[in-house]
Write a sequence for this structure.
């Protein structure tokens, strides 16, 4: 009998590590579900698509498994005038199609090989992020791979984005869309000089600007930020161990003697125009938002706290291990860069809560925002136990909710503006939630003005949604006319 039918909580057994079991276990059926039971009422002024990406391997992996290895699967909740339809579908990447023809996987994961190896090929899985741009959803991968266009309603893969070309031939997991201009900014990174590039894609989906960015060496940045006129690129003191890289393996090292640097680049500037500013050494997985205030750039982010030894020094080995295994210990942080004087400042906004996977009102990306929506992070595993709303001016958590911190798994929550929204936070927050104790899957909708009241609607679903990565909210006007 097929092993998948024997144990859906461990379809490949436990030989590949814990990230393929339990709440992480993949599912193997693509479905379209409507007329789902609802507790409460789906708001009629909630219209658009909540999309979430994540790893869902179709075939048993070779070697040890890391979540960045799994085939990308999109889960969508399409809201239309008080109704909701759920869909899930794999992103048909080139690697997925090759596995389909082979009936198994010829690829290896990031714990066993490196990007570019021909003997142990690494899969580009488009499993990390998804963002709305130029009428489509754009699915992307952690290690700056190929980007794929997907229909945000049907989830059909439409093909590879042809704007990823030249320089490193890759596309970062976290591009940023300026919804005022329709432009999308991205970066790429690779292991040869100049090590990074910055690109701009216009509102029609055409690459209009692509510049090399010189770095001191190969780096592993994860995110970026934009303002109305600038992109903020990251040079972080985390990169490959040289000896392991020469041997063809992926091993991270944290270098506490190096500063964190943020590069401010005019949106259409040449690479030589970038200005670098130094801050305390750390790693950043994700930014909340950035904007301009007079002469200053302000960026709010989730700063990964380096692990410390007993004498208070940075424990480089433990820090690198925690980052590599997604054991996050992050705090809400604010950075300021004065472009006139060169002065920099940084401050912790909330020292108490370990929070990550931030979102906000995406209509205001690159403009000043006051509100952010984040998840409580289990420091021991890739699990989000509840959601919080933050005033990012004061660093105050103004509301929080969880159905159970010890047994619930929340997806990245996204803000969905109400029709005819009257304020930045007038709308809803949407998240998939798996209750491991009750073995139940829900789609939860919160009033963004008062998350602490709990969900205004709970949509009960017959299929578990595996723990995953990033999500987005696709507004009706962002969906291409069919």
């Amino acid at each position: 009998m097929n092993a998948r039918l024997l144990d859906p909580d461990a379809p490949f057994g436990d030989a590949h590590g814990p990230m393929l079991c339990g709440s992480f276990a993949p599912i193997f059926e693509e479905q379209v579900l409507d007329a789902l039971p609802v507790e409460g009422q789906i708001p009629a002024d909630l219209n658009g698509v909540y999309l979430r990406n994540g790893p869902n391997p179709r075939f048993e992996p070779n070697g040890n498994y890391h979540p960045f290895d799994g085939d990308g699967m999109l889960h969508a909740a399409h809201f239309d005038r008080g109704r909701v339809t759920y869909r899930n579908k794999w992103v048909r990447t080139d690697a997925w199609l090759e596995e389909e023809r082979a009936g198994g996987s010829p690829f290896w994961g990031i714990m066993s090989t490196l990007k570019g190896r021909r003997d142990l090929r690494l899969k580009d899985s488009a499993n990390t992020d998804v963002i709305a741009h130029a009428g489509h959803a754009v699915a992307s991968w952690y290690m700056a791979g190929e980007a794929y266009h997907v229909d945000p309603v049907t989830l059909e893969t439409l093909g590879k984005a042809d704007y990823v070309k030249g320089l490193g031939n890759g596309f970062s997991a976290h591009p940023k869309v300026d919804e005022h201009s329709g432009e999308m900014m991205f970066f790429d990174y690779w292991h040869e000089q100049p090590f990074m590039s910055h690109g701009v894609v216009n509102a029609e989906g055409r690459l209009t600007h692509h510049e090399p960015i010189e770095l001191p060496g190969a780096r592993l940045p994860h995110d970026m930020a934009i303002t109305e006129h600038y992109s903020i690129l990251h040079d972080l003191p985390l990169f490959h161990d040289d000896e392991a890289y020469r041997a063809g393996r992926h091993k991270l090292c944290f270098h506490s003697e190096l500063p964190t640097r943020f590069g401010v680049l005019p949106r259409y500037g040449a690479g030589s125009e970038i200005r670098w500013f130094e801050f305390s050494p750390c790693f950043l997985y994700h930014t909340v938002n950035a904007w301009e205030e007079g002469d200053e750039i302000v960026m709010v982010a989730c700063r990964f706290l380096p692990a410390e030894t007993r004498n208070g020094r940075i424990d480089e080995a433990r820090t690198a291990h925690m980052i590599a295994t997604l054991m996050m210990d992050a705090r809400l942080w604010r950075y300021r860069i004065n472009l006139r004087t060169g002065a920099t400042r940084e401050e912790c906004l909330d020292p108490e809560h370990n929070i990550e996977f931030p979102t906000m009102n995406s209509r205001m990306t690159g403009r000043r925002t006051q509100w952010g929506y984040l998840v409580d992070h289990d420091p021991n595993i890739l699990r989000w136990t509840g959601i919080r709303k933050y005033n990012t001016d004061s660093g105050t958590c103004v509301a929080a909710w969880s159905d159970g911190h010890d047994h619930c798994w929340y997806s990245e929550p996204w803000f969905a503006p109400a029709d005819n929204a009257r304020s930045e936070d007038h709308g809803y927050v949407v998240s998939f939630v798996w209750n491991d104790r009750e073995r139940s899957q829900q789609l939860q909708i919160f009033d963004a003005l008062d998350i602490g009241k709990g969900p205004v609607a709970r949509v009960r679903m017959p299929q578990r949604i595996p723990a995953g990565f990033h999500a987005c909210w696709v507004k009706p006007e962002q969906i291409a006319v069919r």
Notes: Residues 94-102 form the longest helix (9 residues). The two ends are 43 Å apart (CA to CA). Residues 327 and 379 are 5 Å apart (CA to CA). The helical segments are 3-6, 94-102, 242-246, 316-324.
